[in-house]
Write a structure and sequence with these properties.
Shape: globular
Structural class: mainly alpha
Strand content: under 5%
Number of helices: 12
Number of strands: 0
Distance between the termini: 26 Å
Largest sheet: none
Order of helices and strands: HHHHHHHHHHHH
């Protein structure tokens, strides 16, 4: 008999796999669109895919949501999705899936530091150890200069690291705002995710004027929409649903630790992108996972 905890563990690992595969697909998608335009199309497609859940949600049956919760969710969507995901896509193009996901694993560390600064939440000795391990992983990835097919020049690598760290900060700020909204409001996590997506899609809408006309002329040699659809289904629709299942059925620390296995899952995909992780890449992924586990468990 499958227990709720087993279901939660499988859901968390499946969510991490979905995010890994989605990042790899976005990285390999042949397109001339900017990272912001890519993010715009991803968000609107995700909203269309999640529309049935949006329509089936009993919004009116819930307690009234305070205005400040809507404001916090809106700001969370702007920072975490509109800005954070755009920076993430830009970093993916320069660093590849493995390194970008490893840098992105520092999110809980940023959240812990923010709690220390703004909420006077002093971490325990174990949490300080976790922060140190995550910092070591980030430094190791930042200093690594991969070689191989498709490797960026040093200047592109440095810019990629800056973009990934910017995505990390924006995503962490968005997560903090979303948690504050969920704490003060009457929305559940799935509803909050839908609101954040909608706000991000609207904020990025001005970029639609710069999109190339459809259908493109001349037509590309291969169809791209299947990759768009698959990457969005895996990374946004399925990823969000599986994440919420894991958070619902597992203790928070265990769920976050399992969701952070994405950098390890990206290692087998690295050769497909011309990336050679080596022992440094494996060590960085293990440090990030170990540090995150110490931080949240």
């Amino acid at each position: 008999m499958i227990t709720p905890q087993t279901t939660g563990v499988l859901a968390a690992l499946a969510a991490a796999l979905c995010w890994t595969l989605s990042s790899s697909l976005w990285r390999q998608l042949p397109t001339s669109l900017t990272a912001g335009q890519l993010n715009l199309l991803k968000n609107w497609l995700a909203l269309l895919l999640l529309a049935p859940a949006l329509l089936a949600t009993p919004w009116a049956a819930q307690a009234p949501v305070p205005p400040q919760a809507w404001v916090l969710l809106g700001l969370s969507g702007v920072l975490g999705i509109a800005l954070g995901d755009s920076l993430y896509f830009a970093a993916l193009r320069r660093l590849g899936t493995r390194r970008t996901l490893t840098l992105d694993a520092g999110g809980p560390a940023v959240t812990a530091v923010a709690g220390l600064v703004w909420l006077a939440e002093v971490p325990s000795v174990q949490q300080w150890l976790g922060l140190g391990l995550i910092t070591a992983a980030l430094v190791l990835v930042a200093l690594q200069q991969p070689s191989g097919v498709g490797a960026q020049p040093p200047a592109g690598q440095r810019l990629g690291v800056v973009l990934a760290l910017g995505a990390l900060l924006a995503g962490s700020a968005g997560a903090l705002l979303a948690r504050a909204a969920l704490r003060d409001g009457g929305l559940d996590p799935l509803q909050a995710a839908l609101v954040r997506l909608l706000v991000a899609a609207v904020v990025l809408l001005p970029l639609a004027r710069q999109l190339p006309r459809w259908p493109p002329q001349p037509r590309p040699p291969q169809r791209r929409w299947p990759l768009w659809l698959l990457a969005t289904v895996l990374g946004t629709s399925a990823g969000i649903a599986l994440q919420q299942t894991a958070l619902q059925r597992l203790p928070g620390g265990m769920a976050v630790a399992l969701l952070a296995t994405a950098p390890l899952m990206a290692l087998p995909l690295a050769p497909l992108e011309g990336d050679r992780p080596g022992w440094r890449g494996l060590l960085a992924a293990l440090l990030a996972l170990g540090g995150l586990t110490a931080l949240v468990v």
